[in-house]
Design goal:
There is one protein chain. It contains nine helices and 15 strands. Helix 6 (153-163) crosses helix 7. 33% of the residues lie in helices and 24% in strands. The protein has two domains: 4-151 and 232-277, Double-stranded beta-helix (4-Layer Sandwich), CATH 3.60.130.10; 152-228, no CATH class. A hairpin with a 4-residue loop joins strand 8 and strand 9 (196-197). The protein is α+β, with helices and mostly antiparallel strands and 279 residues long. The protein starts with a strand and ends with a strand. The strands form five sheets. It has a six-stranded mixed β-sheet, with helices on one face. It has a three-stranded antiparallel β-sheet with strand order 10-5-12. 33% of the residues are buried.
């Protein structure tokens, strides 16, 4: 069973009415107009309280069906849940909204190939607590492609305690290298004391090879195999929103597809709004 909440009836109508006047705002208008942004985040529909209560009991993740694809609604919800503690993205000039659009690209988060299990900004000194995935345009071959997978840290620990204590020891006591741009950073993958996981399959494997620790790639491969066996799989439709813990959950996206749009004269695929925040 997944942690899901479907917005219907009064809740859905309240949400739509609250943000109707903001529905045509662009990403740039919201990011750059402070007065406008203040007006947006001051809208707090009652349903936000319901979502917050659900997230308190289902701390690892929450899937909201029929949330909508109005960026202003997402921004307001995130400000409400975080009380304004938003993660600003260093590589995007400290913008706080990331737009992921599937295309034939080498960007890890945009690639058409299967993604890697990871947490976001795991080496950042103030790693964000949560991330959102709000689907603005679904995959052309929905529901078979661009599926999402998550693995809960508690499930990983329970499994390893029973079946592979050697791997658990490696993950919790070894300073493992991870490649960040042109630097190598060392950190433990699992912190049992704080109940936090920091991981990126590809960036760790790259760093192990660079630092002549290829023999440890075996541990990472074994770990990924276990994660695959424990993962929860789901697909997000247009207007759905997933709120995922960035400290107790690994996430990844499956293979994606694109189609050629005759009007725009380009390939288009799934489009996602993502905001990371602290709780």
């Amino acid at each position: 069973m997944l942690n899901e909440l479907t917005l219907t009836g009064e809740s859905l109508r309240e949400l739509e009415e609250s943000f109707k006047k903001f529905e045509n705002l662009t990403f740039f208008e919201i990011e750059n107009e402070k007065k406008l942004l203040t007006e947006i985040i001051n809208v707090t529909p009652y349903v936000f309280n319901l979502i917050e209560e659900e997230l308190k009991t289902k701390k690892d993740y929450l899937i909201l069906r029929k949330f909508g694809k109005n960026l202003s609604t997402l921004v307001s919800l995130v400000y409400f849940l975080s009380r304004g503690k938003i993660f600003h993205i260093p590589r995007l000039n400290n913008a706080f909204i990331a737009i992921f659009e599937m295309k034939n690209s080498n960007e890890l988060s945009h690639t058409l190939k299967d993604g890697f299990f990871h947490t976001d900004y795991s080496t950042h000194p103030y790693t964000p607590d949560y991330l959102t995935l709000n689907i603005v345009r679904r995959d052309p071959m929905y529901p078979f492609y661009s599926r999402n997978s998550i693995v809960l840290l508690n499930d990983i620990i329970d499994f390893l305690k029973l079946y592979n204590r050697d791997l658990l020891k490696y993950l919790t006591s070894t300073d493992v290298p991870i490649k960040v741009n042109d630097k190598i950073v060392y950190q433990k993958i699992i912190n049992l004391e704080d109940n936090v996981i920091r991981f990126h399959e590809k960036l760790i494997k790259d760093a192990l090879i660079i630092t002549n620790r290829e023999n440890e790639v075996y541990y990472i491969d074994e770990f990924v195999t276990i994660c695959t066996s424990l993962m929860k799989d789901f697909v997000l439709d247009e207007g759905d929103l997933a709120i995922i813990s960035n400290k107790t959950v690994l996430h990844k996206r499956g293979p994606a597809t694109v189609k050629f749009d005759n009007i725009e004269k380009k390939f288009i695929g799934r489009k996602v709004y993502s905001i990371r925040f602290y709780k």
